[in-house]
Amino acid sequence: xxxxxxxxxxxxxxxxxxxxxxxxxxxxxxxxxxxxxxxxxxxxxxxxxxxxxxxxxxxxxxxxxxxxxxxxxxxxxxxxxxxxxxxxxxxxxxxxxxxxxxxxxxxxxxxxxxxxxxxxxxxxxxxxxxxxxxxxxxxxxxxxxxxxxxxxxxxxxxxxxxxxxxxxxxxxxxxxxxxxxxxxxxxxx
Length: 189
Ligand code: FNR
Prior knowledge:
alpha/beta, globular, binds ligand FNR, five-stranded parallel β-sheet
């Protein structure tokens, strides 16, 4: 069985190291995972004033989440928290009330930062948000990737073999997690 995974990159920066990490994950993913990006950069700032009539860009965003089996968040840490652009995207997806796109949708978290704790605090906060949004979250393996210069190039090639192996194992665990969740909660269930 193949599972479709929509990944959200929490950074809008052109030179984002988390985008590099996402590219590496696409390259290293096992064959049963079909990876596609769900872009968040064109969403306006959310307000519940939109709930009665979501703009096209937000409808498409929610549809992209509905279309995949699972979500993977690849996010930086900004000021020891979730980047605003990513939190905004999550708020859009969680509404209108009763149409929460994350409900029963399995998800995983990963992120990279030059700092030694590698986005751990942002991921911890994101866990709380996703629990509230009723997304079954992979508890372990956790992945806090410290980005040293040259670790991953623009094409997503990982220069360090141990890191590449760690990411491969992370994705393998993630694939098994998604399979387990979808066995209990079938698609659309
Ligand atoms: C950062 N950075 C950062 N790093 C970290 O490990 N913990 C943090 O709390 C913060 N805070 C923070 C705030 C803001 C506004 C910026 C712009 C940056 C540094 C950050 O990890 C670094 O810029 C990475 O390159 C961000 O990842 P992307 O956006 O390149 O994927």
